[in-house]
C-alpha cells in the first residue's frame, strides 16, 4: 500500500478518543482548579457527583495511559522505518523530544498539568531499549509498572506502620496555584504555572507513580508495534479478546482494593505506598480494557473513525484545549469556575470537543497535518535529506508493523 493510503485508522481513532476523554476530564476539573460553586440545588449536586465519579471511573488515569502506549507505538513506527532504510533514528528522536519539551513548556504556561513536557523527558528512556530483545524490554517494562519506589517506601515503613505522615509535598504547590488561578492576571497565571505549578505537577507525578508507569507503557507500546498488534487479523482479534478478559478480571479486585483502602486495616505509613501501587495497577488494567475494547470495536466497521481527525491532530488539539479551557474557567478569562459544576462543565467540554473535531476535519481536508504537527515535523527533520514519518497517525506501510 502507498504511504498516503495506509494510515493506521484504528490508532488515529484511539488517540482521538483519548483526546476527547482528556477534554471532558479537564473541563469538569476546571483545568486543575478544583472549585464547587455554592448555592447549587441538592438534585444538581447529586447529578454533579454522579458525573464526576463516572468520568473519573472511566478516564481518570487511563486516558494519559492510552497516550503513553501510543507514544511508544509511534516511536517504533518511526524507528522501524528508518532502520529499514539503514538509518538510526535514535539521535533524531532525542532532538524530537527536545522539541516536544518546548511544546510542553508552552502548554504549561496555560495548564500546569501538561503531560507533554513529562513525556518528552521520560521518552528518552526508549533510546537505550530500542535495540534490546523484546523479552528483555518486557521485563524492564513490567519492573517499572510494578512501582519499585513505592515498594521501597512500603518496606521502609514496616518498622513504624502507624507513623503519622505529612501531607504530600505537591499539595502546597497546588494550594498556592488556586490563588492566582482565581484572582491573578494572565501573566501571573502563566508565570505561576511555569514555576510553582510545574514543580507541583512533577512532584505529584513522582508521588503517584507516574514517573515509573509512563516509560513502562512507552515500552509496551513499542512492543505492540513489534508484534503488529494493531493490524486487523484473526490472530490479533483473539489476542485482544484475551487481553480484554484478563484486564477485566484484574481490574475488578484492584478497583475494590483501591476504592476501600480502609478495609486493609493497616497503618497509614504502609497504606499510602500500597495505595499508589494498587491505583497504578488498577488504571493500567482499565486502560487495557479500553484499548482492547476499542480495538475490537474497530473490527466491526469504520464508525469509530469519527475520532480520527482529532487523533491526527492530537498535539494541536491538546495545546488548543489548554489555551481555550483555562481562558474559560480561570479568573483572568471568563471565570466560569465560579458558576459551573460538573454537569455544566461537561456540557462545555462536549461542545468544545465537537468544535475541535470539526475544525480538525476541516483543516485536514486542506493540509496533511495539523499546524503544530507540521511545525514539529519540519523542525524534527531539519537538515535531513529525506522526508520522515509524522508522529501523529504515522503514514507507514502496514506491513512494517
Please tell me the total number of domains: 1
In DSSP terms (H or I, runs of 4 or more residues), the helix count works out at 17
The profile of the biggest β sheet is: none
Cα separation of the termini: 13 Å
Mean pLDDT: 92
Output the structural class.
Answer: mainly alpha
Shape: globular
Query: Helicity level, as a percent range?
Result: 55-70%
pLDDT < 50 runs, ≥5 residues: 1-7, 386-401
Number of strands: 0
Beta-strand fraction estimate: under 5%
Following the backbone from N to C, one meets helices and strands in this order, namely HHHHHHHHHHHHHHHHH
Radius of gyration equals: 21 Å
Q: Could you give a quick summary of the protein structure above?
A:
This protein is an all-alpha fold and 401 residues long. The protein has one domain. The protein has helices spanning 9-28, 42-59, 63-84, 90-110, 116-122, 126-129, 134-145, 148-157, 170-183, 186-207, 210-226, 234-259, 268-298, 308-312, 314-329, 342-364, 371-380.
Q: What distinguishing features does this structure have?
A:
disordered C terminus; 17 helices; single chain; globular
How would you describe the overall organization of this protein?
The chain has about 400 residues and is mostly helical. About 70% of the residues lie in helices and about 0% in strands. Helix 1 packs parallel to helix 15 and helix 1 runs antiparallel to helix 16. The N terminus and C terminus are likely disordered.
